[in-house]
Amino acid sequence: MITDVWKYRGKSSTFLKSHPEIDIQLTIDYGLTDVVSERFDAGVRLGGEMDKDMIAIRIGPDIPMAIVGSPDYFSRRSVPTSVSQLIDHQAINLYLPTSGTANRWRLIRGGREVRVRMEGQLLLNTIDLIIDAAIDGHGLAYLPYDQVERAIKEKKLIRVLDKFTPDLPGYHLYYPHRRHAGSAFSLFIDRLKYKGAV
């Protein structure tokens, strides 16, 4: 789930200005694209989602998640106070093209992290569509907090179950072990590498 690849544009933009001889092709999708068969130099995924034969370089911090619903939705449904109560709710899910299914929600239940498949009428393929559907009262959405923070502050969305939504491991740039990292690629990796909290 890439939330906002342009978060890294500052680093990329500075890099490109410093190295006009280097070209970058960027392709964005929510699938688990095989970077080897698709002939990409590298990919970006959440930590822990790479194959074991990949080298992974952390490029971002952990990602706080949020479960949100609109005031309209909660006027018709009770506010959940436990993970088990989610069964009584409609979910607005993110469609993952590689698997052809919905993204599972990572939650804390009984003191441990679990992945829950939520049911709902809507299966959408962009975060913006999910936010709009949540604001319109179609159900609960599970999204990166930074994507819904403004809507929460504007009281268009209400955050629930925040104690049960663990942070996702940050994004990592990954590439095959057998790929020779040329000087341009090595420079780019060094520029994107996460240096900790700023």
UniProtKB/TrEMBL annotation:
<dbReference type="GO" id="GO:0043565">
    <property type="term" value="F:sequence-specific DNA binding"/>
</dbReference>
<protein>
    <submittedName>
        <fullName>LysR family transcriptional regulator</fullName>
    </submittedName>
</protein>
<dbReference type="Pfam" id="PF03466">
    <property type="entry name" value="LysR_substrate"/>
</dbReference>
<dbReference type="GO" id="GO:0003700">
    <property type="term" value="F:DNA-binding transcription factor activity"/>
</dbReference>
<feature type="domain" description="LysR substrate-binding">
    <location>
        <begin position="14"/>
        <end position="193"/>
    </location>
</feature>
<dbReference type="InterPro" id="IPR058163">
    <property type="entry name" value="LysR-type_TF_proteobact-type"/>
</dbReference>
<dbReference type="InterPro" id="IPR005119">
    <property type="entry name" value="LysR_subst-bd"/>
</dbReference>
<dbReference type="GO" id="GO:0006351">
    <property type="term" value="P:DNA-templated transcription"/>
</dbReference>
<comment type="similarity">
    <text>Belongs to the LysR transcriptional regulatory family.</text>
</comment>
